[in-house]
Specification:
heterodimer; A: 111 residues; six-stranded mixed β-sheet; five-stranded antiparallel β-sheet; 11 strands; globular; B: 114 residues; mainly beta; 56% strand
């Protein structure tokens, strides 16, 4: 059974600081998504990482994928309050393309 | 708005009630999904429909009954629910079921079973 683990589960960080969220998964996959969810809102797609070594950046967020280590990272640079949200990674497996989500990381950026 | 609309946004129901959740998309997608999001648990896939055919039932109790009359609409019929079924129910769609097709999520229905 595929397991997708994120850490930390909760992250409180100051504005201007850098931090990394980690996503580990237990079976082979070469496609991984990162989503953002604001309280009471839908999941917003941030990145899709399609192959080993893939790196994508949007604003203060940068995501990378290492399929050999079964690890993806979401790096936050110089955090701002607007980044406060819950971030999920999700891994695609199988021919049916089942999307399995991590537990989520709740990010709180404080002044 | 994401293009996937869920109604109602909030629902409170008793354990003996029957209610339905609705999901609608006009993105031209052919795959639709129901997910359950409980507090402190990962999102759980419940059902998948691809071109109106159910392709996955993730061991969901029969008190949840999905219906997909066409590729644009997806329902989740609820009856004799339990308090532990209280959660956020998210609908998603993709072009079709398969690699490479991103999911678009609705805003969810917050269900409370009393």
């Amino acid at each position: 059974e595929l397991k997708v683990e994120q850490n930390p589960l909760f992250l409180s960080m100051q504005e201007g600081k850098n931090y990394t969220i980690y996503c580990n998964y237990s079976t082979t996959s070469d496609r991984l998504y990162w989503y953002r969810q604001d309280p009471g809102k839908s999941l917003e797609s941030l990145f899709v990482l399609l192959s080993n070594g893939a790196v994508k950046q949007e604003g203060r967020l940068m995501a990378s994928l290492d399929t050999k280590a079964r690890l993806s990272t979401l790096h936050i640079t110089a955090a701002v309050h607007d980044l406060s949200a819950t971030y999920f990674c999700a891994v695609v497996t199988g021919t049916a393309s089942k999307l399995t989500f991590g537990t989520g990381t709740r990010l709180q950026v404080t002044l | 708005e994401t293009g996937v609309t869920q109604t109602p946004r909030h629902l409170v129901m008793g354990m003996t009630n029957k209610k339905s959740l609705k999901c609608e998309q006009h993105l031209g997608h052919n795959a639709m999904y129901w997910y359950k999001q409980s507090a402190k648990k990962p999102l759980e896939l419940m059902f998948v429909y691809n071109f109106k055919e159910q392709t996955e039932n993730n061991s969901v109790p029969s008190r949840f009954s999905p219906e997909c009359p066409n590729s644009s609409h997806l329902f989740l019929h609820l009856h004799t629910l339990q308090p532990e079924d209280s959660a956020l129910y998210l609908c998603a769609s993709s072009l079709r079921q398969g690699f490479g097709y991103g999911y678009t999520f609705g805003s969810g229905t917050r269900l409370t079973v009393v």
